[in-house]
Write a structure and sequence with these properties.
This protein is an alpha+beta fold and 276 residues long. 25% of the residues lie in helices and 16% in strands. Strand 8 and strand 9 form a beta hairpin. It comes from Macrosiphum euphorbiae. InterPro entries: PGBD (IPR029526). This is PiggyBac transposable element-derived protein domain-containing protein.
Length: 276
Amino acid sequence: MIVFKGRSSMKQYNPMKPIKRGYKIWCMSDQNGYIKKFKIYQGKDEQVSDEFKHFGLGERIVLQMSKKKLKLEGCLAYGLWLFRPNCKGLPKLADDTKSKRRTYDYRISDLGISVFKWKDTKTVHFASNYHGSEVTTVLHHADQLRMSYGVDRKSKKWWRRLFFGILDIMFINAFLIYKELHGKIPLLVFRRQVVRGLLSEKEKRKQLSVSKDARLHNRGIHWPKFTKSRGRCELCSFKYQLQSRPFSKCLTCNVFLCYNDKKNCFAEYHDINCNE
């Protein structure tokens, strides 16, 4: 889940989860937590292709995510399913009040399907035709890594929260690859190294959007024009780091410039001494 409390048709609410409101992301990851594929859940109104319409939500997601990876004909497929304790048709397992922390109870059917109940801080129920109780240590490994030192920037714009969530997924995938190639490294140290590598050492000097030749060529045909809408003054932003938004602009250069009784950026902009 990616935290989001603003307005969005894709926002989900699940009171049983640590993150109760936000975007639900279906992920396909390996046992190390490397996310190979993800899909944003768009709610009940999500458009589904005819190929998967007759499947339930859980079946559909698994088949869509593994469509190119699995060829079910002639292959043995293994599956793992997390479920709620109030699901129908499940065997009776040990009571929570009688179970100690880090203990589990299980039942195995005649078809080889195991149903487990693992007790830790909270109780986890899952069924598998391959795994045992050891999988509880890797079930949420990818999510735990993503939430550690995550990019947490509050925003009411829905797309920003999704961007930050996907950025965290990219960080974790890069971290796991780096650890596989170069050995163990703390996640926080890796994140800092990536950030420092992305930051430029020296701030680049701003450049005017119009070249010097174009500004000074045929200086007699540069005329100011007053428009109905405002625009950012090219010279104020470049030379003085000010946010001025005049109505006047140069017809030839097609840039907004201050042109009034208090300030004449138009004349200075077309002057030969205006350095870039």
